[in-house]
Design brief:
Length: 303
C-alpha cells in the first residue's frame, strides 16, 4: 500500500519532510501547504507535488500528514487532521500545553488515528546502537548547546532543545519522577535561552540536563553511568565511547555505527506504522510525558 502524504509547513525543517517523502518508495507526496505562497510553490515545484496555502485543502486527498509548523499552531491543526480521520506526525513538542496533548490523545483514540511525535534523537544511529548497552542507569547527564540562530525563539529553550534529552532520559528510566530542580535565564530573547535541570526518579536514578542556545559551538552529548559501565554518546558525530568491566578488568571501546539520516529513518518508520497500524516508537503518550516534565522544569525556573 502506497501512503499518500501531505506536509503542512515547509520552512527550515518542513522542506526536508517533503524531500524525504518524495524519496520513500512506500509514500507518495501529494502536496505541501504553507501560508507563505512562495515557499509552498518553490517546494512543490522542487518535489513535483501540489502547492496549497491552506492545509485544509489537502485533507480530502491524503492519508497522512506531517505537521511542521510553529508549536503554537500544532494543536488546532492536529485536531482538524484527526477529526478528518488522518494519521499524523507532529514535530516536537507535541503541543504547547499538557491539556492540549491529552485532548489530542483522546481524539486519536476515538478516531483510531495514529499520532507520532518527531523526537528525532530516538532515530540517531548512536542511540539505536547503544540501546543494548543500557541496563540500569544510576546517573545520566545530557548537554545540548547551540549558537543563537534566531529560530525557535517563540518558545523557551526547554521546549526547543531540552525536550529532546528529556524524552531520551524518560525512555531509559521507566519510573516516575520524584523531584525536579531547575535554573535558567532569558538573555537574548524574551524566552528562556539557557536552562539546567536536575531530575530525581523514584528508583534513585538522577539526571542532569543542560541546554543553551547561546553557545559559540554546537554540542550534543549524553553520558550514562551504570553498574559496571560508563557510556558517552556524541549525537553529532554518531559515536559511542564505553568504559566497562569484564573478565579482563576494565576495557574501553569506540563504536561508530553506520551513518544514516535520522529524519529519513523517522519518516520511514512513521509510514511503516501507518501501513501496519502499530504504535510508533514515540507516540503521543511519550510526547505528552516529555512535555509534562519539560513544563514542570520551565515552571520551576520561572517561579
Amino acid at each position: 500500500m502506497v501512503v499518500r502524504v501531505g506536509v503542512i509547513g515547509v520552512g527550515y525543517l518542513g522542506q526536508h519532510h517533503a524531500r524525504i517523502y518524495s524519496e520513500i518508495e512506500e509514500a507518495e507526496l501529494i502536496g505541501v501547504a504553507d501560508i507563505h505562497r512562495e515557499k509552498a510553490e518553490t517546494i512543490a515545484g522542487k518535489y513535483h507535488c501540489k502547492a496549497m496555502y491552506d492545509y485544509r485543502d489537502m485533507l480530502d486527498n491524503v492519508d497522512v500528514l506531517s505537521i511542521v509548523t510553529p508549536t503554537t499552531t500544532h494543536y488546532p491543526i492536529a485536531l482538524d487532521c484527526l477529526k478528518s480521520g488522518k494519521d499524523i506526525l507532529i514535530e516536537k513538542p507535541i503541543t504547547v500545553t499538557v491539556e492540549e496533548a491529552d485532548h489530542l490523545i483522546r481524539e486519536s483514540e476515538n478516531s483510531g488515528c495514529i499520532i507520532q511525535v518527531g523526537h528525532l534523537e530516538r532515530y540517531n544511529p548512536a542511540i539505536l546502537a547503544a540501546t543494548d548497552f543500557f541496563k540500569a542507569p544510576v546517573f545520566i547527564e545530557s548537554e545540548r548547546l547551540s549558537p543563537f540562530l534566531g529560530r525557535g525563539t517563540d518558545v523557551d529553550v526547554t521546549l526547543d532543545l531540552m525536550i529532546h534529552d528529556i524524552d531520551i532520559i524518560l525512555s531509559l528510566i521507566d519510573k516516575p519522577v520524584k523531584e525536579i530542580r531547575a535554573v535558567g535565564a532569558k538573555v537574548l530573547s524574551d524566552k528562556l535561552d539557557v536552562a539546567k535541570a536536575w531530575i530525581e526518579f523514584e528508583n534513585g536514578c538522577t539526571a542532569l540536563a543542560t541546554v543553551s542556545r547561546l553557545s559559540p559551538e554546537k554540542q550534543r552529548r549524553l553520558k550514562v553511568s551504570q553498574e559496571d559501565s560508563y557510556i558517552t554518546i556524541d549525537y553529532q558525530n554518531s559515536e559511542i565511547k564505553r568504559y566497562f568491566k569484564n573478565e579482563k578488568g576494565i576495557s574501553f571501546d569506540i563504536i561508530k555505527p553506520e551513518k544514516k539520516e535520522p529524519l529519513k529513518e523517522e519518516l520511514k518508520d512513521f509510514i511503516h506504522c501507518v501501513q501496519e497500524r502499530k504504535k510508533p516508537r514515540v507516540s503521543a503518550i511519550e510526547g505528552r510525558n516529555a512535555l509534562k516534565v519539560v513544563m514542570e522544569i520551565t515552571e520551576k525556573i520561572k517561579l
